[in-house]
Structure formats: C-alpha cells, structure tokens
Amino acid sequence: MNEKKVMLSGIQPSGDLHLGNYLGAIKNWAARAEEFDCYYFMADMHTITVRQTPADLRRRTLEQLAQYIACGLDPEQNTLFIQSHVPQHAELGWVLNCYTMFGELSRMTQFKDKSAKHKDNINGGLFTYPALMAADILLYQPDFVPVGEDQKQHVELTRNIVQRFNGIYGDVFKMPEPYIPKAGARVMGLTTPDSKMSKSIPEGCVFLMEKPEDIQRKFKRAVTDSDTENPIRYDPANKPGVANLMNIYSAVTGKSFEAIESEFAGQGYGKFKPAVGDAVVETLRPIREEAARILADKAYLESVYKASAEKASYVAGKTLRKVYKKIGFVSR
C-alpha cells in the first residue's frame, strides 16, 4: 500500500471561528484525511508576537481544538496538536533563523502590516516569525501546505530556505508544494457584502458557537436592497447582499440558485432572511453542541492534544536530529 502524502496546516487561536471559516475551509478538511496524513496545529507560539490576555489565549486554544473535532476532524485520523507542546518547533525555528536572510524577512508583507497596526510593540518575534513558520512546515517533511493568497509568500520563503540549506548540507528537507484547497463557499459579511466575513466586524459575522437567537437576529438585519419587483435572484454585481445570502443558503442546504429563486418566488426579504438564518442555525447546532460537550470533557480533550503532541514530537524529532547532525551539533 502506498504511504499517504503528508499535509500540514497551522492556525492561530487569535479569535473565534466563524461561518466563513467553516464553509470556506474547515468543512472540506475532514475529507482530506482519506487522501493525506494530516497535521493541524494551534499556532499559539505565533500568536504572542501580538500581546495576548493569557486566560483568553488558553481558552481560545482549547475551544479551537474542540471546534475542529466537532467539525469532523477525527483525532484518530488527523494529528491535532498545540504548537508549544512540541519543543522542536522552537528549536528548529532558531536554526532556520540562521539560514534566513535579513533582506528576505524585511520584504514580508505581514511584518509590514502588523508593524503598522502595533507600532508600540514591533518585537523581534514579529520580524523573524517566518523562520519559525518554515520550521513548523519542514519538521514534518510535508508534501503539501494548504495556503490562501495571503500565505503564499511564506511558502515561497520556506522553499528558499530549503534550497539554501539542502544546497549546503545535502538532501535534508523535502521541498513543500503550496496546495490551493478546493474552494469552499466564499462567505461575505452580512453587513458588508462587498468584503469577506470577518471577526473584526462582529455584527456581520456569524460565530460557530453563537446562540441560535443571536444568529437569527444577525440574518434578519443582513444588508439586502430595496428591490420589490424580483427580490430573490442571484445577481452579485447589482445585488451583492442577496447573492451572499443565496450563496450561504446554497452552501448549507445543497440547493442550486435556481431552486432557491423558485422556492422564494413572489416572497420578500422578510421571508427569505429568516429562512437562511434557520438553515444556518440547524447546520451549526450539532457543531456547537458537540464542541460544548467536548469542552466539558477536559480529560478527553487533554488525551487528544497529549497523544497528538507525542506523535508530532516523534516525527519532528527525527527531522531535528538529522538537522543537528548535519550542522555539527554533538548528539545528545
């Protein structure tokens, strides 16, 4: 039997997961376990480049893990771990700092963006975190790294580091390929249908753990338009708010735009918006309930992240030992 190819992705526990995250990405992740050996980690070490409230960071890290499991990422099939529980990340991160050029780090757009937003805390970690990100990836010798547009630059830098390191020491790291995931639904903000749903605009963002009545209220207030002639039709250019609601309704019910148009023919937004809200509530209900159940079972959650960290450490340790030997460190 052929060994599965390895895929790895890290997500910062810097905010609560929302409907856009779920329909756009997470929903498709569960199916990947059939094809790939998947590693997903909570990137808590990356989160601290910006000041965090410690209790919130702990809570969000565990909530995110529970939500992933509730969304269908089976811990028996996926390695779900917390980055700071695998010390090899920090160790290889330091080594790769020494093989990453100052000029390369200076050109990273996220450094420029975050420096502008956090002028009072432009720390060394904010500048050098791409070397840690390269370590996150290379420890597991993955074939693929799923990336959005905003992360492509990091994979390119990682590939440069691989080329440089392998050029000096031989074939140490596997060259990772960026993996553009199968596009899920592109979910826009309920109050800003011209931009993606974002936790930074909470009134237009539906969170996975939100109460049903709050979800409904947000959908009832969703931006539409004043069209009374033929209100429910798919026309993104002229009716972005309605197109977004139809997109969401289609993603959670599986109905085509034509079927949605005929279902609501002759009806106004007063019927349509609550119907979309209901469909979303019912889609998220089992996820919310299961995540709450998992969070209440602290022993189970702990067993998941401890077993996953053990597996991740074993794999990461093999890579790190090879690196240490190549660069001339005395073996332990």
Would you give an account of this structure?
The chain is mainly alpha-helical and 332 residues long. It has two domains: 5-185 and 297-327, HUPs (Rossmann fold); 202-292, Tyrosyl-Transfer RNA Synthetase. The chain has helices at 19-35, 44-47, 54-70, 88-97, 102-106, 109-117, 124-138, 152-169, 212-220, 240-253, 257-263, 269-296, 298-327, and strands at 5-11, 36-42, 78-82, 144-146, 177-179.
Characterize the biggest β-sheet. Answer: 3 strands, parallel
Uncertain ranges: none
Q: Topology as H/E string?
A: EHEHHEHHHHEHEHHHHH
Count the helices. How many?
Answer: 13
Sheet with the most strands: spatial strand order: 1-2-3
Number of domains: 2
Q: Which percent range describes the beta-strand content?
A: 5-15%
Give a count of the beta strands, DSSP E runs of length 2 or more: 5
Write the layout of secondary structure elements.
Blueprint: E1 5-11, H1 19-35, E2 36-42, H2 44-47, H3 54-70, E3 78-82, H4 88-97, H5 102-106, H6 109-117, H7 124-138, E4 144-146, H8 152-169, E5 177-179, H9 212-220, H10 240-253, H11 257-263, H12 269-296, H13 298-327
Parallel strand pairs: 1-2, 2-3, 4-5
Helix pairs in contact: 3-12, 4-7, 4-13, 7-8, 9-12, 10-12
